[in-house]
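On to my pick:
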Amino acid sequence: MKYFYTFLKRFFFLLVIYTSSRLFFYVFNSDYFNRDILLSFLEGIRFDISALLYINIPLIVLLMFPTNLRTRKYYRKATNLIFYITNIPFLLINNLDIEYFKFSQKRSTYDFFEYLSLGGGSDAFQLIPQYIFDYWNVTLIVIIQIYFLLRIKKIPFEKIKNYFSSSLILIITIGFFVLGARGGIQLKPIKTIDAGIWSNTENSVLVLNSSFCILHTYNKKDLETLHYFSEEELNNNYNTKLSFTSKSFSRKNVVIIIMESFSKEYIGYYNNAKGYTPFLDSLMSYSFVMERAYSNGIKSIEALPAITAGIPTLMNNPFITSSYATNHYKGLANLLKEEGYTSSFFHGGNIGTMGFYQFSKKAGFDKYFGREDYNNEEDYDGSWGIYDGPFFRYFYDYLNKEKEPFISSIFSLSSHPPYNIPEEYKNSFDKGELKIHESIGYSDYALGKFFRNAKKKDWYKNTLFIITADHTSPETKVKTYNNKVGRYSIPILYFMGDSSLNSNNSTVTQQIDIMPTILELLNYKKDYFSFGKSVLSKQNWAISYLNNEYLFITDSSYIFNKKEKYNSFSDANKKEKIKIKKEELNLFKSIKQNYNNRMINNKMTNEN
């Protein structure tokens, strides 16, 4: 029986470690959570027990199965080794979320590994030394936890004297395993969406642990079919088949510039000149500026499909890594290529990072240029890729030789953690109050240099430029943006090289509206498919999804939906609850139904 008691001690110690990780998770992200912290910790034990039982299945089988092989030296070594190699990796990921949560706003799920398999892994492994140093506090937590884990007494074994009692222990263990892994005696085993139900709290990510989330999202179906409306009602409420009654098609060049982590908070134009983007501020004075613009997600991997193909991520996995990534669809480059456009996509990172290369090809971009194509490691930032300054110059040089009309997009990277900028520009930009501010200033400078050079060229006046952000940064100092809605507030502007677009627009818009808006500005004549809508249509809504909760923003309210419970508020901080308008609720449900059913049935083209 000694081996059984020792295992119980180990299991209890793992629970203590997971609770300590939850405590640190709370301390480092306390602004995100409301009250009921104690209840969240207590309910969290239920999810910890479930995850740890699943993780330790191999060990439980080896320990509890009645056999005298347990007395063999190699068997004892194997059980101890399995304990460490199964528990330590999950412990690392669980603690990784202490800091990573600021960027992802959710517990890590299985798509974390799918992201690594798409090329992000090469970047991640290069960044590990930097992150170990930058987030030394998390590193210290992990080291201490592993140290105590390694100090736990090895499991002793004795020869079986009574097979009946050993078999009885096995049966009891199986019973406790089923009860603990299921999370109780309720009808169905607990899932991530059940977090916070027992304690009646909204702190679901605090209740959960990353190990549980990873285990429960492996090989999981991303979406389920919805049946709110009939097909006719659905199309009346929200139609994904778009068309314009337009003049003759305008064969203008299109350049989409996606700026890494450019939160609306950092843009002086939106904040009474209090910002870190002097060039962008000046350009916005001559642009078609969206005053109420939002991202559809909070990850770069979610931004590219939204911006270039009108496809948001309204599910737990990013579209690029989801089971629907192979669906048939036509992005902006696909549509414009049919009109004789050439197409290209630029990102200074390694080819394959975040699936950008794979997606850009499927979305219609003929040419992809990354760090390998740039082929000058003197301009490598040591972390993610080529500095924005030289890579924007590389982008500019290419456009000068490109055949018109062209559609081209560039994704910046210097304002991504760890916010490296070239040595020659250190102390050249306002350092502000946050670490990101200096790199925002540098990326804005690189953007300005690109425009100053491009302005001298003939193609410039015949070009429609779109500038936006992939998502916001978790680093914030302005109270106005420190809420769930502010987390999605980004700049979106449309600029014509001949300065023919010049006004502000207060319509609620989002990244998936960029493709339809571009096509309407070009007087595109053909029907096409998009989940978004043109900002010129005057439709006021934006949608996003995170942690099993939808956020639907309209002209008059902010609607939150989780487990079919809809709550509407008049302010971003969810202080004043208001009645939901029927037409807004019908539109919201129609978007959800159309998205889910079209994804599942691979009906994402105009022909469908």
